[in-house]
Amino acid sequence: MTRQSVTEIRPQVRTYGQLTSLEVEVAKEDNALLILPVGACEQHGDGLPLSTDSIRADHVAMAVAEELAAAKEPAVAEDLVGGKRTAPGRAFVLPSIDYGVSPHHGNLPGTVSLDPRTFVDIVTTVAGQLCDSGFTRILVITGHGGNIAALGVAQQVLLSSHPNLAFAYSPVSGLATETTAALPRTEVSGHSGESETSQMLAIDDLLVDSAHLSAGATALDDLSPRARLTRTKSPSSAVTFDQYSDNGVLGDPRTATAAAGQDILGEVISSLVAYSREMLRL
Questions:
Q1: Using alpha carbons only, how large is the chain's radius of gyration in Å?
Q2: pLDDT tens-digit profile of 176-194?
Q3: Are 174 and 145 in contact (CB under 8 A)?
């Protein structure tokens, strides 16, 4: 029996899981970019959901895919590289990995952490199989900073096993340098603090238990010597988050606003759209 074929992907499709197996072949022909959101299931203080990092990664990934789909680049679509059509600016969001590397949050309620080696194995298995099937561009967006080191290892593993795969990874909040710098923050800020809470309020304020938002560690002088040492970027050291504060929060999320979150997410999405367009031109 001869299989059917299609020449176009339905315009409303944004996720890999929504593609049919026939459309997957078109996506490969078009050299589509695949976006993999990764997050975590871990404590986020008393007012943010355990899946905060996954929710933010999913939101950003979908926004990037939407912007790429909305942009019209006919010159790119018409070019030929090696006899194949180049990508018409399409990207598809892969099913997310919603558990991350979170041992530093394990002493506080709700956290489920993967062993770093397990996380690397999951990422490299997914990316490697996609590459073996014909996809050559994958962008990982992580909402959890604790995944960064493991993603660096995954990148090196894939560089050895699949050297033709363009594999990139990026944090969410770390891209918002300008808007985060303008955000009113306490001396110590970060996890579940002003930035993350603002982003969650912008995404869906119903997911934030605003009545129970509370400050955590806010000043260096309030930290133990070992905890204070971890606030130096290099050399790098770590402690479990219960050593920062009882609620595992860095900063004061009570000052967060949805407007600030929109600005932060806007800067992140703009940066990733620009980078994605460069990946699509490879």
A1: 20
A2: 999 999 999 999 999 999 9
A3: yes
